[in-house]
Amino acid sequence: MPPRTFIRWFGHATVLINWGDTWIITDPVLRHRVAHLRRRNPIASEDWPSRIDVVLISHMHWDHLDLPTLRDIGKEKLLFVPRGAGEWLDKRGFSNVRELEVGDRLQVEDTWITAVPARHSGWRPFLGPTAETLGYVIDGDHQVYFPGDTDLFAGMTTIADNLDIALMPVWGWGRKLGSGHLDPFRAAEAVFRMRPDIVIPIHWGTFHPIGSTLRKANFLVEPPEIFERAVNRIVPETDVRILRPGEDTTVE
Fold first, then answer.
1. What share of the chain is helix, strand, coil (3-state, %, to 5)?
2. What is the pTM (predicted TM-score) of this model?
């Protein structure tokens, strides 16, 4: 059979990746509410991933490292985390944590996972530690890039040699975007630098601040469409696949 990769986007930066017997999930946040943020489309219990072999954590912000979700997945589950986050998670009962720094490359079953740079703050609000921020290149039946949260950086052109799929953040959770993030145009520039075959816009349309009005919440729906138009203009050979939270796609 030809290589086949299954990808389901649960919203924000939470992506389930599968090929063969290997199941990977990134920055899992599967709750209705996180701090001051409310999920726009709640996840039903039957939609939870039934199997996970390894969890990839890009950085320690609340909307990327969610302790209740990690506990529900299982405290014994293998966690790859940035350097500086391991001891903090150990003290909270997680028994299978491995710290990575940029350049580290580890194998999980038939998949190789490499930690790559990310340009973003690594501080855990409000009294938490500061750890590194990472992206990951995941090599299995296809090569997948998960940036976590990042801004553009010089080394993006050399992140991957033969990138099949990029999971590209295109916004955040509010009307304005803070530093260390990609907006739709800067995300399109990242695609131009990396030239993946397929790009899936993530990190948009999932959470919004509690109390915010949603009647004119263009920030929840427009970023992937703006991103797609920008990519089609400057990198027309890249296939943009827009998923809604909970939707999936298969790459053959």
1. 20, 30, 50
2. 0.96
